[in-house]
Amino acid sequence: MIEAHLDKDKFDFEIIKTERHKHAIELTKQGIDSGCKAVIIVGGDGSINQVGATLAGTDVALGIIPAGSGNGLARSLGISLNPKKAVENINNFHFRTIDTGLVDG
After folding, report:
1. What is d(CA 10, CA 50) in angstroms, rounded to the nearest whole number?
2. Which domains does the chain have, with CATH numbers?
3. Active site residues per annotation
4. 3-state secondary structure of 26
5. 3-state secondary structure labels for all residues of 36-64
6. What confidence tens digit (pLDDT) does each residue in 52-94 have?
7. Residues near 86 by Cβ (< 8 Å), separated by ≥ 6?
8. Would the N or C end of the chain have less CB density within 10 A of its end CB?
């Protein structure tokens, strides 16, 4: 679905699947180190948290294609739960800056 709908004229991309717990953190760090401009996660709040926390404080954008059971962050940000529409948001560069924080260490 991503290969069919992500605008290849705008994006040079690679699809990498996670293979184990917290693998998304490793992949995100590799993306940062290789100069990626964005990391797009297809997943739920847990996976999004791993990627988002790793990207916090960097200039690398986080894209979300909701695929979890609750999708709380995507819902609160107004990201469509329809995967095709979520990809269209990415194609159209719909983005916003959000705050992050640390509580109790």
Report:
1. 26
2. 2-91 (3.40.50.10330)
3. 45
4. helix
5. CCEEEEEECHHHHHHHHHHHCCCCCEEEE
6. 999 999 999 999 999 999 999 999 999 999 999 999 999 998 8
7. 64, 65, 66, 74, 79, 80
8. C
Would you say 38 and 61 are in contact if contact means Cβ atoms under 8 Å apart?
A: yes
Helix (H) or strand (E) holding 66: strand 61-66
CB of 74 within 8 A of CB of 81?
yes
List of residues 6+ apart from 100 with CB closer than 8 A = 52, 53, 56, 57
CA pair distance 79, 83, nearest whole angstrom: 10
Taking the C-alpha atoms of residue 13 and residue 73, their distance in angstroms, rounded to an integer, is 24
Evaluate if pTM is beyond 0.85.
Answer: yes
